[in-house]
Design brief:
Helix content: 25-40%
Distance between the termini: 6 Å
Strand content: 5-15%
Structural class: alpha+beta
Radius of gyration: 15 Å
Length: 157
Amino acid sequence: FGICSVWTSGSDPDGEVKVEVVFKPEECVKKSKKGDLVNAHYDGFLAKDGSQFYCSRTDKDGHPQWFVLGVGQVLKGLDVGMMGIMEAFGQIDQDKDRSLSKAEVKHRLKLDYEKDGKPRDDPFYEKIINDIFRKSDHDRDGLISAKEYNIYEHDEL
């Protein structure tokens, strides 16, 4: 699950799509580019009134959408927003033990939201964390290993 996937956005040169950058890691080893196979959970909102028109967590049995980046397989906003995203595992793994605890994931989420002036209450973070661990902690040991994080069937946030 690349937390960046959920939180990273871009802009459309034609001005047709409005996207917001909520989180961007300080360091990046690999960025997504046109032609990459990516997957993402996403929510779609109308710019005119903010109403939600799509949520990947409630459609298609809650599975993220796989697509080739930059070739028009998905909504333009998703294509634009996913361009240049970065892998986030190393940014989240504070103790560098090659696994992510719920505390590490929560810490990262809180930092990102607070940094952007959008702090949330604990139930908000817990809902996201529980979703991440339900789908990614395959051996149910309470940690997401680097291997679990990087498997092909892994859900993006």
